[in-house]
Amino acid sequence: MQWVYLFTAVALLIGLLIILIRAVVGPTVYDVILATNAIGTKTIVFVTLLGYISGRPEFIDMAIIYALITFITTVAILKFAEKGRLD
Amino acid sequence: MHWNEIVTTVLLALGCVVSLTGSLGLLRMPDFYTRLHTSGKTDSLGQFLILIGLAFVTPDVLTCIKVVSVGMILMIAAPTATHAITKAAHLHDLRPWTRSDPGGEP
User: Fold this and answer.
1) Do the beta carbons of residue B26 and residue A18 sit within 8 Å?
2) Can you spell out the DSSP letters for B35-81?
């Protein structure tokens, strides 16, 4: 089963590189926010896969925390971009 | 191979295809709203497929519950974030690109 996990991880990394190009190129600030959100979502799955590759599925705790942090970060940045302040 | 490993392999392959398609769409689409359209859907579905596939091969019950809960969090959080991004861009008068109105974003 290890090669299946490795193949999936490599596919996720290729997707991450493609999204990173968009995050660097992106004409508007919303493209950058969208790419950052996509990178965060892919990173959650990548951390989970790393746990399975190394045979320690307890890495999933980090994935839960990263999911919550990514969501809160995106909403906070959007609120700041929308209103200009955070309160 | 046991039956759950076969199910996991199929789900992981589907998740890879969907995820890579979304990434390519995010790079290739012409304007912001179409990029959001590709990325917002495939990000939810692809990662959910991979996580559910991983849940089939977890050795113990607690880790399985955690993997499924991460999938549920993603299924709720990713469309919410996509909606928030769309609303912010729309409030900032970001025009969509159309054939008759190419003055939007190229």
Assistant:
1) yes
2) HHHHHHHHHHHHHHHHHHHHHTT-SSHHHHHHHHHHHHHHHHHHHHH
Is-contact B94 B105, C-beta < 8 A?
yes
Task: Count how many pairs of residues, chain A against chain B, have C-beta atoms within 8 Å.
Answer: 129
Within an 8 Å CB–CB cutoff, is residue B19 touching chain A? yes
CB B70 within 8 A of CB A63: yes
Which of chain A's residues have a Cβ under 8 Å away from the Cβ of B43? 37-38, 41-42
Domain boundaries, chain A: 2-83
Walk along chain B (106 residues) and give the pLDDT tens digit of each residue. 788 899 999 999 999 999 999 999 888 888 888 888 888 888 889 999 999 999 988 888 999 999 999 999 999 988 899 998 888 888 888 777 777 766 555 4
